[in-house]
Write a structure and sequence with these properties.
This protein has 131 residues and is mainly alpha-helical. It has two domains: 94 residues, lambda repressor-like DNA-binding domains (434 Repressor (Amino-terminal Domain), Orthogonal Bundle), CATH 1.10.260; 32 residues. The protein is built from seven helices and no strands. Helix 1 crosses helix 3 and helix 2 packs across helix 3. It is elongated. The N and C termini lie far apart (44 Å). The N terminus is likely disordered.
């Protein structure tokens, strides 16, 4: 019975991961939860529940999200499995800690910096502030 409980925990982690991917896509396109909800013909509260992993997303909804953002389903599942490491068995999740709103805003702003020297300065600044 204990093994079954750990499987459910992994499924919940996957739901949260997919929700974070959806949130990142939405924010990258400067789309509100209400805007996405309207395109999906659902409430913004439902979008919120999808993004937090509180509610599971059906396959047809995943397909709808892929069409809205012009992505393949593979994008939503990126980094779920770590198949390159011998320390993990298939099915182990890679922690996805870079998914807060602030992290996403920082990443999106950083991606708009074209100058490599300025990008390196930003990296050094962040490292200095972090230590």
């Amino acid at each position: 019975m204990l093994k079954l409980a750990s499987v459910f925990m992994e499924l919940d982690d996957i739901e949260r991961h997919i929700g974070k991917q959806i949130k990142m896509l939405r924010m990258a396109q400067k789309m509100s939860q209400k805007d996405l909800a309207k395109k999906m013909d659902i409430t913004y509260q439902q979008v919120q529940k999808y993004e937090t992993g509180l509610n599971r997303i059906s396959v047809s909804r995943l397909w709808q999200i892929c069409n809205i953002f012009s992505i393949t389903p593979n994008f939503l599942f990126e980094n779920v499995l770590d198949v390159s490491s011998n320390l993990h068995s298939p099915g182990d999740l890679i922690p996805n800690n870079v998914a807060t709103s602030q992290d996403i805003k920082l990443m999106l702003a950083f991606k708009t910096i074209d100058d490599g020297d300025k990008r390196n300065l930003m990296i050094k600044l962040c490292e200095a502030l972090a230590s």
